[in-house]
Amino acid sequence: MRIQWLRLLLLRCHHTQSQFCISRQSQVNSLRAFTSSFLCSREPQVIPRPFILIHHFSSSSELAEESKSTPDQAVLLTDTFAKTGKSSEEIKIDLDANNVGITHDLVMSVLENSSTDPDVAKRVFHWVLESESEKLSSKSYNLMLGILGCNGFVNEFWDMIGIMKQKGYGVSKGTFNKTGLRDEVDKLKKLYSCGSAGSKSSNAEEEVCRRVCNIVNQEVWGDDVEKQLRELNVEFSSNLVSEVLESFEVEPNKGLIFFRWIEESGLFKHDEQTFNAMARVLAREDYSEKFWRIVNEMRGAEYEMEKAMYIKVLQQFVKSKMIKDAVDLYEFAMIGENKPSVHDCTFLLKKIVVSKELDMNLFSRVVSVFKANGNMLTDANLDAVLKSMTSVGKIGECNKILKAMKEGGYLPSGYLQNKIAFQLSSGGKTEEALEFMDNMEASGTADNYKSWVSSIEGYCVTRDLDKASDRFRKMVEKEGASSALYALDMLVSTYCRKNRAMDAFKLVSEMVNAKGLRPWHSTYKELTSKLLARKRFGEALDIMNLMKNQGYPPYLNPFIEYLSKVGSADDAVAFSKATSVKSLPSTSIFLRLFEAYFKAGRQSEAQDFLSKCPRYIRNHADVLNLFCSIKSGDAAETAAVAA
Questions:
Q1: 3 state SS of 244
Q2: Angle of CA points 165, 170, 172, to nearest 5°
Q3: Fewer beta carbons below 10 Å: N end or C end of the chain?
Q4: CA atoms within 13 A on the CB side of 258
Q5: C-alpha angle 471/473/474, rounded to 5°?
Q6: Distance (Å, rounded) from C-alpha 312 to C-alpha 332?
Q7: For the residues 129-140, what does the mean pLDDT come to?
Q8: Which interval of the chain is the signal sequence (predicted)?
Q9: What is the pTM of this model?
């Protein structure tokens, strides 16, 4: 459909060609409304003092893991222009808030993306044309022309043709290649060239770039190559030089030779755009030294590193496992005007900690330059770093990380302290966990109670109960008995689930008798049930005595169930005595025991227990009635059987 539409468009233009050529002035006038609002001069930028980065040229292939990209600025840019009705000032505020800096590469990435909405692409292009037109090149115009031509924007298509002719830009054949319009492009070029005879600027920059590259590639650089380049009689612009340099991406040395010669020859003086283009081509491990030389020259010439270039090179360094170079690049960019986003700090810290060998010097450098630029580390930074460390099994080295971040003015919140304590303990890092707790206590910000509990919980999760108990004892010594009840309950529950009720009993007895702990009622009850399930009646009775001494009511049900099934008369007597401290045991307890014995079919044990009960129980009317009813029932059953 697009092909048919453009063919009709070209046919229409063929019929009106002579009018277009003769009445060029009227065409230009019709374009004035399209362009007038977009042709604004850029505000002058503040130039920082020259800066030379002292760089040690070394990198290791083992210093990084393959990583995800930093936040995509192209996405942020298109999102900003997705909504209509925004003023130019509102757009600028939104871009600044998202730390998006307009660069040539960024605009190109939006226009080249086939998923970009055509209307959004138009708004982006027009806004850049109005506010920062120097960021647009011949390639940018050709991409925009292709979008207009392939999406039915007839009037704007021809307006763009006029603007491009005024600027001396040609129509690239690649503009419509994707839509299969190669033949039609030739017709369009014939129409486009009308009235431009004798004009040097009518040659497309792409063609000039191709000719320059052919000359450089055909033979070894020498006087003959330089002579041919001069004879081109071309006025080298920033866009043209940048395109030539980028064409030598696979042969950076040729690009660097051309870069040096073009300025030494007096044909062109390098600017920010061409310095950035050259640096981008050299951003490879085997050209690291040359890259940094160009970057330092750029800063010395008071030019800035473009943000889009910084992002692209940073990603390239990380993918090539050149983490030291990535940190150097971050420091360099942070000193300049186009500072990296706050997310880049976290991005680099994560890459450093997942390296084969943790380089704390690199980590500290990133933290230091981040702080020096007025930023503050947050829990989000540390949390992201911890996740990366955990993913490669390096959580045991978190104390080094925390020390470096503390020097950067950051201390973790209580939530993260607890998380770290848990992770160290659950990961079996006992010494590191103790060191962490000591460091947090020394800092004066530790939420000691919760951190201790989290550490104990970590050991409980891994069922390392001996270490959990040791840590619990240290907690009681440091924090006191009143803070240890939750941790004790957690320990008892874990012991019981692991069928180690006796170890739980010993710990509870030790803490109550020696440290004065008053465990929760629920802790006592759970331990009692588990002890009786393991037929540890004596220990369960001791727990009942501890409960009584601390004012808790006795926990009767598991005892009565145990005694009715396996307990002896002596056990029942001991239990009944333990249920009361000063007064005599309650009659109701005896009655419940007798009923439980009878229900379990253990009349003889009930009779034996009755014989050992106090006189007030043996003569109690309710007790006598219970035994009489049982005997009457037995007699009636015997008579029925005899009959």
A1: helix
A2: 145
A3: C
A4: 33
A5: 65
A6: 15
A7: 82
A8: 1-18
A9: 0.62
C-alpha Rg value of the chain to the nearest Å: 42
- The distance from CA 202 to its chain's CA centroid, rounded to whole angstroms, is 50
Distance CA 153, CA 155 (A): 6
Closest CA to 249 of 220, 276, 280, 270: 280
The set of residues, in sequence order, having a beta carbon less than 8 Å from that of 196 and lying 6+ positions away, is 165, 202
Please list, residue by residue across 201-229, b when 16 or more beta carbons sit within 10 angstroms of its beta carbon and e when fewer do.
Answer: eeebbbebbebbbebbeeeeeeeebeebb
Write out the two tokens for 327.
């940190």
Collapsed DSSP state (helix, strand, coil) of residue 554: coil
Longest dimension (CA), the chain: 138
Lowest pLDDT segment from 218-222, 424-428, 579-583, 613-617: 579-583
DSSP-assigned letter for residue 59: -
pLDDT of residue 640: 47
Which residue is it, tokens 């890259």? 291
- Least reliable range by pLDDT among 126-135, 313-322, 609-618: 126-135
From residue 144, alpha-carbon distances to 85, 255, 616, 639 in Å are 21, 28, 106, 110
Structure tokens at 583: 């007064």
> What's the pLDDT tens digit per position in 56-108?
333 333 333 333 333 478 888 888 888 887 888 788 888 887 888 888 888 88
- C-alpha to C-alpha distance for 284 and 272, rounded to whole angstroms: 20
Cα–Cα distance measured from residue 631 to residue 625, given in angstroms and rounded to the nearest whole number: 10
Which residue reads 């005896």 in tokens? 590
> DSSP of 568-612, one letter per residue?
-HHHHHHHHHHT-SSSPPPHHHHHHHHHHHHHTT-HHHHHHHHHT
CA 381 to chain centre: 9
d(CA 112, CA 121) in angstroms, rounded, equals 10
Cα distance between residue 152 and residue 66, in whole Å:
42
Q: Find where tokens 């033949």 sit.
A: 183
The token duo for 573 is 């007597």
Angle at the Cα of 225 from the Cα atoms of 222 and 229, rounded to 5 degrees: 140
- Contact between 145 and 160 under an 8 Å Cβ cutoff? The reply is yes
> Which residues, 6+ apart, have CB-to-CB distance to 66 below 8 Å?
318, 319
Cα distances (angstroms) measured from residue 611 to each of 253, 569, 570, 598, 618: 108, 9, 11, 15, 7
pLDDT range class, residue 162, cuts 50, 70, 90: confident
- 58 CA to centre of own chain: 28
Place of tokens 């590193």: 305
Question: Do residues 488 and 519 lie in contact, with contact meaning Cβ atoms separated by under 8 Å?
Answer: yes
In one-letter notation, the amino acid at residue 200 is K
d(CA 201, CA 230): 17
Q: Confirm if 459 and 481 have CB atoms less than 8 A apart.
A: no
- Contact indicator for 172, 142 with CB cutoff of 8 Å: yes
**Is pLDDT at 338 greater than 80 in this prediction?**
yes
Separation in Å, CA 435 to CA 180, 427, 441: 68, 15, 10
CA angle (106 as vertex; 102, 107 as ends), nearest 5: 85
556 SS3 class: coil
